[in-house]
Structures are given as structure tokens and as C-alpha cells.
Amino acid sequence: MDTDDLEPRRRRGEALLALAREDLSLLGIEELSERIGALETEIARIRDQLERKRGSLSAAEALFRK
Length: 66
Fold this sequence. Notes:
Helix content is about 70%, strand content about 0%. It contains 2 helices and no strands. The longest helix has about 35 residues, at about 30-65. It is flat.
């Protein structure tokens, strides 16, 4: 049996909340720079997904207008 099956499921957004609560004063300059890079990559990924969803919504709206 996989032990992951025994772990409680994390709720959506829980990881983001935990990240936002982390004490940044414990991180060094390099770690903070790496975090900024990771967050910028995540923002780009989210924007890409948002644009895909908007495109799907526009296509669906166009289909049902006919």
C-alpha cells in the first residue's frame, strides 16, 4: 500500500498560504532570489492557464450564440 494514500489530502491553496506565512527573515539573499525566480515562473504558468481558459470560454460562448 502506498503511504500517500494514508496522508490527508491538502486543500486547494493550502500550499500557497503556507508559503505566504513563511518567515522570510530566515532566508539568505540567494535563497530569496531563487524564490523570486520560482514565483515568477509560477506566475507565468498561471497566466498561461488563465489565457487558455479564457480562450475556451470565448469558444464556448461563440458556439452557443449561434
